[in-house]
Every structure is written in structure tokens, then in C-alpha cells.
Amino acid sequence: MNPDIKKYNDTQTIEDQAICNLLVNAIDTNLKNAENKIWHRHPVWFIEGNPIVGYSKLKNCVRLLFWSGQSFDEPTLKIEGSFKAAEIRYTDSSQIDMEDLKRWLQKAQAIQWDYKNIVKRKGQLERLK
């Protein structure tokens, strides 16, 4: 595990640590070629510089965010923001469905919008895959 992500997880409550550790292990296992780092103070995974998935501690939950998640056709993931992102929120580690998570991570690799160049394109997203 990336030491900075471990440090992030270690600062959470015991239950939120359990959620974060399950997420990081599943993401690392399923996105073997992705880079990961703390980005905007949260763990994020990138493929070729493009953000794919990340999680963050919110006031009452841990949010798992897929930057291109609205294109996954997954009703469990909820729309987040004005671009293509979708999220799911967890308050307990028992809520994480590992089969769903694995499928979403596969889709995250296969379905990507170009967030890396969004500023250069003046807020316009283009589909990469």
C-alpha cells in the first residue's frame, strides 16, 4: 500500500479505517497498473494520468467516487457533480459488496472520460474508451 494512503487511512476512526482498508485492497488488486497517490487530500488512482477512482472521508461516511461512473449503467452508483462522476457512500464495512466493487473497477478501466485534459478543453469532456 502506498505509504501516504496508509497514513490517510490510519487517521480515520476504527470503522472508517475498515472501510478504507477494504477499498484500497480491492482497488489495488483490481487496478494493478494504476498509479495511486493522495490527490486533493484524498486517495486517488489514475490510468495514464487520468483519475479513475478514489475515496474520501465525508462527515458521516466514506465516499467511493468513480470519475466516469455515470457511464457504467449501475443504479447503485449515484450521480455526483456536473460531469460524469458517480459515487456510493458507506457507513459500515459490511455495506461493501465486493462483487459490485470488482465489476465497477473493471468498468472504470474500460469506460473512461478524459478528465486529465478537461482544463485544456475548457470544461468539455471527451470519451477515451
Written overview of the protein:
Residues 17-108 form the YdhG-like domain. InterPro entries: YdhG-like (IPR014922). This is DUF1801 domain-containing protein. Pfam families: DUF1801. It comes from Flavobacterium chuncheonense. The chain has 129 residues and is α+β, with helices and mostly antiparallel strands. The chain has one domain: Aspartate Aminotransferase, domain 1, CATH 3.90.1150. It is built from three helices and six strands. The protein has helices at residues 3-10, 14-30, 98-110; strands at residues 35-39, 42-47, 50-57, 62-66, 78-79, 86-90. Strands 1-2-3-4-6-5 form a six-stranded antiparallel beta sheet, with helices on one face. The protein is globular and about 40 Å long.
Instruction: Using the 3D structure, state the CATH architecture.
Output: Alpha-Beta Complex
Number of helices: 3
Strand content: 15-25%
The major β-sheet equals: 6 strands, antiparallel
Fill in the CATH topology.
Answer: Aspartate Aminotransferase, domain 1
Alpha-carbon distance between the termini?
A: 28 Å
- Strand line-up across the major sheet: 1-2-3-4-6-5
Alpha-beta classification: alpha+beta
**Secondary structure: number of strands:** 6
Over the alpha carbons, how many angstroms does the gyration radius reach? Answer: 14 Å
